[in-house]
Input
Amino acid sequence: MSLITWARREELARLRALVEPAAGVRVLDVGGGVGAVADVIARGAGEVVVLEPNAGRVREGRSRFPGLRFENGQGEKIPFPDLRFERVLAIRSFHHLERAEDFLAETLRVLVPGGRLVIEEISPRSLMARFFQLMHHGHLEFRDQPGLRKFLEDAGFREVTVEPYRRWYFAVARK
Output
């Protein structure tokens, strides 16, 4: 476990409980960077795939976490067939999506019936969100908890739950 994941160990333990990795579960982590978080919260799943738009992070992830599969790509156009995954994750990456509605449509396409989407997102009112907005020249879209719940429900997800966690919050939804 790296220093960064060690510092987030309580948060990652909660995420792992929401993901519920198991031998027959296939997990797709969208925007998963080098895979450090996926390696912790999805360990024990049948297959863990990290979809990352940054080719350098894909290369680094392949060398650091050989037990994970890495693909270069975007969450708005997931390069996998229909009904491929039991879990799709967007851990601290949802606000980076250029077209979140396309990501949700793609997620519904690749999830099996009853499959689960797990999102970790930052509160838009937090100082951290404002800092990220400044760094990215206002190009990030943060949704508050009720807004994300409605967005997921309007996209076709069911059993949507949202729970706070410090400056972040977790959203879980089923196909």
Summary: Residues 13 and 129 are 23 Å apart (CA to CA). Residues 9-19 form the longest helix (11 residues). Strands lie at 26-30, 47-52, 69-72, 85-91, 111-122, 158-165, 168-174.
